[in-house]
């Protein structure tokens, strides 16, 4: 039986939201910036992930009107989301160590 892949887009989104609430485009831009342009997510990928995280109660969402009159949906990680992120981080560290060992010839 194959193990579920430990790395996921949801882990990256939760990690970004750990520091502060953000709206969708802001998440995309921050992911691009922090990854030095390695992760360039499209809206069509992000929003289904956010909706799934919201459904699972890992994030909450609120709407706010900007100074320009636009409505934005801001997402924030929940306590449950922080616990899940911690688990995903541990899985990633285990996965990363294993890959590094294999690449090093251990």
What does this structure look like?
The chain is of the alpha+beta class and 106 residues long. 57% of the residues lie in helices and 15% in strands. It has helices at 9-19, 24-34, 43-55, 79-103; strands spanning 22-23, 59-65, 71-77. Strands 1-3-2 form a three-stranded antiparallel sheet. A hairpin with a 5-residue loop joins strand 2 (59-65) and strand 3. The longest helix has 25 residues, at 79-103. The chain starts with 8 loop residues before the first helix and ends with a helix. Residues 1-7 have low confidence and may be disordered.
List the helices and strands and how they pair.
Layout: H1 9-19, E1 22-23, H2 24-34, H3 43-55, E2 59-65, E3 71-77, H4 79-103
Antiparallel strand pairs: 1-3, 2-3
Helix pairs in contact: 1-4
Keywords:
106 residues; elongated; alpha+beta; 3-stranded antiparallel beta sheet; disordered N terminus
Specify the biggest β-sheet. 3 strands, antiparallel
| Large-scale geometry | elongated
Instruction: Spell out the helices and strands N to C.
Output: HEHHEEH
Give the % helix: 55-70%
- Tell me the β content: 15-25%
What topology, given as strand order, has the largest sheet? 1-3-2
Radius of gyration (CA) equals 16 Å
How many DSSP-defined strands? 3
List unreliable stretches of 5+ residues. Answer: 1-7
The first-to-last residue Cα distance is: 24 Å
- Supply the helix-strand structural class: alpha+beta
Supply the number of helical segments: 4
Give average pLDDT, whole number: 91
